[in-house]
Amino acid sequence: MRNGRRRFIQASFILLIIAIVILARFLTISGIGRAVPPPPTPVRVEKPVKRRLEETLSAYGNLKSANQVTLLPKVAGSITALFAEVGDAVEEGSLLAEIDREAYKFDLIRAEAVYVNAASTWERIDRLFTAGNSTRQNWEEARAAHTAAEAQSAAAKLRFDWTLVHSPVVGVVLVRHVNVGSLVAPDAGTPLYTVGSLDNLEVAVRLPAAYYPAFNTGDPAVRAAADSFPDSPLEAQIRSVAPWIDPATRTFTVTCRILPDESARLFLLPGMLLYVEFVLDVRDEVLTLPESALGGGKWIWSVDSEGRARRLELEVPFLSSGYVVVPGEWEGGRFIVEGQHFLREGTELRILSGTDG
């Protein structure tokens, strides 16, 4: 009984294998089991268009007065009076501040008294020496004392004069750093005022060292705008290019003069953040494609007459304003601007509607 059941199971298994082999053979002959080719890859294409392109380099910098100065005290003491406020116009020599003068006044009086006494002694000894009634040693000592007293008197006078702080330039008070009663000293480096002209403005920007040749051999045009007023362009020109590269940052400094018109003068202030753009190269009526067409840094995919992908190479791509320059012989061709990232040479394409095909 058991042997009969075992033979039945074996026979059923053999019949199942035969059925599978026959089915596989049938599928192979009929083509049902063959691999299904992938569908065409959907892409968007455009034709090259002629444009005017500019190669530009941009940077940000803070606007400042070209003759802006920060006044530091030359003597120590407390501020006893301030004569200018922020926004006040000042002339060269205008009195701005006074530092306590009493101690320096007494030093001056004492130094002048010593000088008068030394001068009198020197005159008396000089007369005696000329008449042969004094030694040369006495004459030299009197002369040295007179010279030292004269220098001390002049130094005391200078320190006394320094207690009155005057503006060294014509301009406007931009910052007042102290109040009446503030203690100041030359060693402390405490500033008193910052004064600058609002008619002579400039901005300094740092640029990568790789661009130095463009500024060393050429004269790039400059465009500028205040970051707070981007729709109000400013006229600008390069004033100076630093003749050295900062080894710490690998940058160089370009200083530009800002030439504001009457409307710009109403909002331009030192300290404003300025956007500065340098035009390094201009190309007129060149054939271009959107920058999105560029893959791998220099590859562009085209569509051949059979609707398949073909890869082309740009040796030195010129990029500007979102476009890349392509050879003139590419005019009229169709180039993939979207969907090219997974293409292979000869891939069948499906051009999506709504594109320049």
What's the Cα radius of gyration?
43 Å
Number of helices: 4
Strand content: 35-45%
What is the second-level CATH architecture of the largest domain?
A: Beta Barrel
End-to-end separation in angstroms reads 78 Å
Structural class: alpha+beta
Descriptive notes:
This protein is of the alpha+beta class and 357 residues long. It folds into 3 domains: 41-51 and 285-351, conserved putative lor/sdh protein from methanococcus maripaludis s2 fold; 57-66 and 197-283, Beta Barrel (Elongation Factor Tu (Ef-tu), domain 3), CATH 2.40.30; 74-195, Beta Barrel (OB fold (Dihydrolipoamide Acetyltransferase, E2P)), CATH 2.40.50.100. It contains 4 helices and 21 strands. Strands 2-11-14-13-12-15 form a 6-stranded antiparallel β-barrel. A hairpin with a 6-residue loop joins strand 12 and strand 13 (233-241). Helix 2 runs antiparallel to helix 3 (136-162). The mean pLDDT is 87.
